[in-house]
Every structure is written in structure tokens, then in C-alpha cells.
Amino acid sequence: MAQEHRRAVFPLLVQQGPEGFTAGEIAERVEGPASGLSLHLAHLERVHMLRSWRVRRNGLFAVSAEGWRRLLGFLIDEYCQEHREIC
Hints:
Elements: H1 4-16, E1 21-22, H2 23-30, H3 34-46, E2 50-55, E3 58-63, H4 65-79
Antiparallel strand pairs: 1-3, 2-3
Helix pairs in contact: 2-3
């Protein structure tokens, strides 16, 4: 998530919900080149933050609810051990 394009894509997909967007729709909304976007989407999928599927010829991308839960759980466990009330 340290890369600016990934930081732009992730909240967009969180707000969209399980329906997701095509790569072209994502590129339009984050105003980035579609060619480089595929690398970022692939990376987010590899680390289980996104899921993808195909509908006809379109690849769709959405946030992985399970990946998101695991990340939040890790952050809470790792950084809030002594101050659970903050988290």
C-alpha cells in the first residue's frame, strides 16, 4: 500500500463494494494509465487485498473482504496489544 496508485485504487474499490470495477473503469477514476494499472492490480491480488473474476471479456476487480479482515486483524494484534481500547 506504500505505492500511490495502490493507495488510490484500494479506497475506490472499498467504496464500490462487491460489484467491483473493470480495469478500464478503475483507470478512469484514478486518472492513471491503464497499462501500468494492471501491475498494481496484480500485486494487490497477490497479497489477497483484491479478488478478480471475468464476465465475458471483462476482468472485474473488487476488494477481498477476507483479505481486508485479515489485514485489520493483524494490525490490531500486532500494534494494539497493550492498548486495545485505542483500536
